[in-house]
Design brief:
about 270 residues; seven-stranded parallel beta sheet; 8 helices; Rossmann fold; alpha/beta; binds NADP nicotinamide-adenine-dinucleotide phosphate
C-alpha cells in the first residue's frame, strides 16, 4: 500500500472559508503542509496570514477577501476560482459567526438573520456556486470533497442559549446529508458525480472561544467538558479534513465526524 497516496493532497486546489484564524487556519495549514494550493477567505485582509501559512509549504496559500453574507461576493469568489483554477478539489465551509447569546424571549431577530445567513445560507450558496468547479475536479478515480464545519452544538442542547447558532449548525448537518444523498458520489450514473459531502463537529477549540482560553484556569474549565480533558488543537480538525479529502476518505459521504475529545459521549454532553 502506498501510504502517501492514501492521505496525499499534493496539487489539490482547496478553498477554506474563514481560513485566516482559529480552526480555519489549522485546516488551511494542514493542506498547505500537504502540498495543496489553498485559498483562504474572510472579510478581513488575510495577506499576512497567507504569507505565514505559506511558510508551512510545500503548498501555497492565497487570500481572497469575501463577505459571505453577500450573494454577489459569493458569486465573485466562484468566478475567481474558476478563472484561476477551473476546478476545485476541496471546499471547506468553515466561516461562521458565534456569540449572540440571549435568554429565550430576548433574542433580537436581526441577530438570528445575521447568524443564519453566514452559518447556514452561505455554505449552501457557496457550495451551489462551486458545484461546476467540484464536478470539474472529480472523476471516477478521484473524488472532490465538500466539508462543512458544524459543531457539537448542532447535536446536543448547549446550556448557553445559543439559539440561532445551534439551529444553524443542526441545519448544516442535515444539509450535508441532503447534499450527500442528492448530489453525491455516483460517478458514471445519470446525474451523479464523484463528490463527497461530510460534516465535522468540533468540540471546544481556539477561535470563537479565545476569550475563555486566555488563562490556564480558563483552558482547564473549557477542556473539562470533554472526556479528553483538553481543548482541541486546530490541527486536530485539519487532520480530519485531510482524511475526508484524500483517497483515504473517498468512500465516506454523508457522515458527521465529531472531533470533540469525546464531548458528545461524555457525562456533560448537555451542559
Ligand atoms: N472554536 C470552537 O470552539 C468551535 C466549536 C465548534 C464549532 N466551531 C466552528 O468552527 C468554525 C471555525 O470557528 P473558529 O472558532 O475558528 O471561529 P473564528 O476564529 O471566529 O473564525 C470564524 C471565521 O469566519 C469568518 N467570517 C465570519 N463572518 C464572515 C462573513 N460574513 N464572511 C466571511 N467570513 C466570515 C471570520 O473572518 P472575518 O471576521 O475576518 O470575516 C473568521 O475568519 C466555525 O464554523 C465554528 O462554528 C468552532
Amino acid at each position: 500500500m502506498d501510504f502517501n497516496n492514501l492521505f496525499g493532497v499534493e496539487g489539490k486546489v482547496v478553498c477554506v472559508t474563514g481560513g485566516g484564524g482559529g480552526i480555519g487556519r489549522g485546516i488551511a495549514g494542514a493542506f498547505v503542509a500537504g502540498g495543496a494550493r489553498v485559498y483562504i477567505t474572510s472579510r478581513s485582509d488575510l495577506q499576512e496570514a497567507a504569507d505565514e501559512l505559506a511558510e508551512e509549504g510545500p503548498g501555497e496559500c492565497i487570500p481572497l477577501r469575501t463577505d459571505l453574507s453577500n450573494d454577489e461576493e459569493i458569486t465573485a469568489l466562484g468566478r475567481t476560482l474558476d478563472e484561476r483554477e477551473g476546478k476545485l478539489d476541496v471546499l471547506v465551509n468553515n466561516a461562521a459567526l458565534g456569540g449572540f447569546i440571549h435568554r429565550f424571549g430576548e433574542l433580537p431577530m436581526a441577530e438570528w438573520d445575521a447568524m443564519t445567513t453566514v452559518n447556514l445560507r452561505a455554505p449552501f450558496a457557496l457550495t451551489q456556486t462551486c458545484l461546476p468547479l467540484l464536478r470539474a475536479a472529480a472523476n471516477s478515480a478521484v473524488h472532490a470533497s465538500v466539508i462543512n464545519i458544524a459543531s457539537v452544538d448542532g447535536v446536543r442542547i448547549a446550556g448557553d442559549n445559543d439559539w440561532a447558532y445551534g439551529m444553524g449548525k443542526a441545519g448544516l448537518i442535515h444539509l450535508t446529508r441532503q447534499l450527500a444523498g442528492l448530489a453525491g458520489n455516483k460517478h458514471g450514473r445519470e446525474g451523479g458525480h464523484n463528490i463527497t459531502f461530510n460534516a465535522v463537529a468540533p468540540g471546544p477549540f481556539p477561535g470563537m472561544l479565545d476569550r475563555y482560553l486566555e488563562t490556564e484556569e480558563g483552558r482547564a474549565a473549557v477542556g473539562a467538558v470533554t472526556v479528553s480533558g483538553r481543548v482541541g488543537k486546530p490541527e486536530d480538525i485539519g487532520a480530519a479534513c485531510i482524511y475526508l479529502a484524500s483517497r483515504a476518505g473517498s468512500y465516506v459521504s454523508g457522515v458527521l465526524l465529531p472531533v470533540d475529545g469525546g464531548l458528545l459521549v461524555g457525562k456533560r454532553a448537555n451542559s
